[in-house]
Amino acid sequence: MNADATIQVAPRLNAIEIRGLVKTYPGGVRALDGLSFSVESGKIFALLGPNGAGKSTTIKILTTLSRPDEGEALVAGFDVLQQPDAVRRAIGCVAQKSGVDRESTGRENLILQGQFYGLRGAELKHRVNGLLHRFRLSDAADKVARTWSGGMQRKLDIAMGLIHRPKVLFLDEPTTGLDPEARSELWDEIAHLAQDGLTILLTTHYLEEADRLAERLAIVDRGKVVVEGTPDALKADLRGDAVQIEFAAAPEEAVVRQALAPLEGIGDLNLHGAVLHARAHHGATAVPAMLTTLDAAGARVASVKVSRPSLDDVYLRYTGRTFQQAEGGQR
Fold first, then answer.
1. Domain 239-308 is in which class?
2. What is the DSSP string of 45-92?
3. pLDDT, tens digit (0-9, with 9 covering 90-100), for 54-69
4. Is the CA virtual torsion 203, 208, 214, 215 positive or negative?
5. CA-CA distance, 220 to 164, in Å (whole number)?
6. 3-state secondary structure of 20
7. Structure pTM?
8. What is the CATH number of domain 14-230?
9. In principle, which of 38, 113, 154, 308 could form an S-S bond with 160, CB 3.0–4.6 Å?
């Protein structure tokens, strides 16, 4: 080979491409308002947002269960509107509501799901046994699913979504309703799936879930992507510390802003009721000055907390409200 020659490496294809999705429901409710993002093959990508942000609507469109009013979407290289059958063969989907037949055994659930995709005989048996073993469900495989714990049933849901070896797996709020221990165990299982090269699109309203699992995420708010990137990069963009101050009584915003304005290194002020969120270049040294200044202005502080940037801080930066406020429907 010529020493000057270069080896051309094929670019890694995106498993999902979404451009300008719009979806409006009867009554004028706009669930998606120009949503756009892409997911690289073999990665875990999270759509993070509060309930009502448009996450489940996005999943319904990508899995061909709904049609957008505008925009286009490709999954595994197939157009969801023009090639829906090809999309369905290429994907697995675990919806928010469990698809497990609770009156059948775990093994029967997997067999039925496999038969739906055309698997038969030894191939089906091998695939069922392999998934039961992988998710550590073998011991309970021949017991009816209603006797299983919530975490075990959710694992079975995911196993059913994998029975036909899809290229892309959709997980719509997969750990909602699980206790912390079961949730953590399921996180481990999801992380292991990505190691096999499977593309996973995860929707969640759990900040920790997105932070722990996603190699890349998009924060969705009111049907739009407001920011996208890796969890670490998004948090690193928020330089300094997050400062949360709770007042004894809700102060006037103008009073708070006027009091803190002369202090250097303080920004991103967001006052909601009696709670102030702010950013400080050096939280440990900034807080004493903040407390003194606020007290002099008549805003009595009840408690203060300083922490490193989190995804909640990222959400606050780009939407103007905390994730908790958004979950409560507060605008």
1. alpha beta
2. EEEE--TTSSHHHHHHHHTTSS--SEEEEEETTEETTT-HHHHHHHEE
3. 999 999 999 999 999 9
4. positive
5. 30
6. strand
7. 0.82
8. 3.40.50.300
9. 113
